[in-house]
Design brief:
CATH topology: Rossmann fold
Number of domains: 1
Structural class: alpha/beta
Oligomer: single chain
Largest sheet: 4 strands, parallel
CATH class: Alpha Beta
Number of helices: 5
CATH architecture: 3-Layer(aba) Sandwich
Helix content: 25-40%
Number of strands: 6
């Protein structure tokens, strides 16, 4: 069954009861946008497609270290090993305007959360920004660890955490 998200368009004539299909939008954020957040974006896209759901996704980093670069090869390999292709993604930096363009912004750790709030320049986030692991309150880890300086096992751990969190997110969006 196709899941469609319908939101009333305020410009529609209420007598007509017209509805506009607007897919929810989710931004995933980590430090460099080459490991965790592109893995999260790829995971969300993949799971949404499996569920026949439409979700607009993107990812960004709080730093500009890797702008324009493809995801880390280990992230690409990890995801490919699970049938998910993230080779098309390119790193970009989070900007304050992202808050207007996305319904939800999920960060991978508390440092990312602080950086996003700093980049917002004191602007309130309206509850749109949160830790992705808040979706899994019973999980022992509250933050998604950065696998960049570790080995393949770190990427597999991140994959497993994001698989669980993105599944719950899609349940909430349905």
């Amino acid at each position: 069954m196709d899941a469609v998200f319908l939101f009333k368009d305020p410009t529609d004539d209420p007598k007509e009861g017209m509805m506009t299909t607007v897919p929810p939008s989710v931004l995933m954020v980590c430090l460099g946008n080459i490991c965790r957040s592109p893995m999260a974006e790829g995971m969300l896209r993949h799971l949404a497609m499996q569920r026949s759901m439409t979700v607009r996704t993107d990812s960004a980093g709080t730093s500009n270290f890797h702008v324009g670069e493809a995801p880390d090869t280990r992230a690409v390999q990890c995801m490919a090993g699970h049938g998910i292709d993230i080779r098309d993604l390119r790193a970009r930096q989070f900007v304050a305007g992202d808050l207007d363009r996305f319904d939800r912004v999920f960060v991978m750790d508390r440092s990312n959360l602080q950086h996003v709030r700093h980049l917002l320049g004191g602007r309130e986030d309206g509850g749109k920004v949160s830790l992705i692991m808040d979706l899994l309150p019973g999980h022992p880890l509250r933050e998604v660890p950065d696998p960049y300086y570790g080995g393949d096992q770190g990427f597999e751990q991140v994959y497993a955490m994001l698989d669980q969190a993105c599944s719950i997110l899609l349940d909430e969006l349905r």
